[in-house]
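Forwarding these from the shared drive since the link keeps breaking.
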Amino acid sequence: MEKKYLGIDVLEAARKRIAWTFDTFTKVCVSFSGGKDSTVLLHLVADEARLRGRRFALFFLDWEAQFKLTIEHVEAMFREYHDTIEPYWVALPFRTVNSVSQFEPEWICWDPQKAALWIREIPTGAISDEKYFPFYRHAMTFEEFVLEFGAWYGGNDLTAILVGIRTDESLNRFRTIKRGACGAKSMLNNRIYTTWYGDGIYNVYPLYDWKTEDDWRYFGKFYKPYNTIYDLMYKAGIPIHNMRIDEPFGNEQRRGLYLFSVIEPETWGKLVARVNGANMGALYGNEKGSVLGNIRIDKPEHKTWKQFTQILLASMPPKTSEHYQNKIAVYLHWYRDRGYPEGIPDSQAEDCAYRDNSPSWRRICKVILRNDYWCRGLSFSPMKASYYESYLRVMKYRRKLWQVF
């Protein structure tokens, strides 16, 4: 897509977008992770809010398995802007993917049943009461929570959720800005950096055209505080474009899992005891090949990709294997009615690329090798935990009916 230059620098553009946000929306919330992008966003929003005498919500989801330096930085930011924020430091049990284990393919942060193994104690002042939010359900996913949080916080008012993502960081983030999470998106006043997510709720991305270097120019020029974990990452040899602050066990995030052992050994020791497969993920998260399905994958020469898939499924714990088989059955049934009545190919060109129109058994195999439990690589999304048992019963019936796998 051709870029259209505005004739101003990205800092001025971001400030104008934030000013427009305060002019337009009754309520404003910043989604904060403690990373460099969301920290820049927080500083800019707080500067504008203080000029206007406005308050805004500051939302931070505490994943439990995080660097101590990140938590110290978040605490410092909540103190720094206490006069202009409505604080929402959330430390509730959330279910998320664990792509480094087939025995625990999902894990729950702040799981009360594993309190003795928590990596650290819940911070003072954090929201940990499961009854605090009327919409909260135990072990719901982050994706479910943020949508309902926006509706709850906004009420009947026009509400902006400001998110510090940049389009040059990944193709997925570019798509989020360009098309939204679900395809063609609705915008407010035709502004590309807004995305409609519900009645009166919009995500706003003021930094969408920034580059990594712009973040660091901002911190250096204005002497604004940032998360010093990045200094240690730099000393550990991590390029600035590869530095990430996130929950550590996702398919992409696991590549930085080893940094816990390098930067914060004490935290790493607790993390290994807390989450199944953490050490394996640290050892092989950056390895190419079939160990964790990174980049190119291969199979035994005398087996087809379909046969290799069946071997992998047979090697899994029964519950995990059944989960994947259900997803695969839906995938195969969908394509049987859409141009593949005799079944999908064993492999085809670009079938492992991030696209939806090249089905194959090799693509299925890559999803399994990557421990992609939610099967995003097959275009699925996380399922609500409350529906899962009924889903299993329905799928047992459907698989008998379809006879596809």
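-- next protein --
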Amino acid sequence: MSRAFDIMLIALLIASAIAVIRLKDLLAAAIVFSTYSLMMCLLWLHRGAPDVAMTEAAVGAGITTVLFLVTIGRTTRRER
């Protein structure tokens, strides 16, 4: 069960990383990046590192996403 969960999380991480690179809509890319950070948080928690998971959740999914959204709100949403 644990091995299957690890493989599923890694597959989702790879898929979301590729999606972030390929998306042309910056808002959608920021949201997918936020889900990437949340999946990394789950992976760290599952691997037994709750301190790293909390840091990833706070910085990766929290502060970084807010900064991305504020920046996108002050600029254009679509890449040229």
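The chain has one domain: 2-74. Residues 50-74 form the longest helix (25 residues).

- D.
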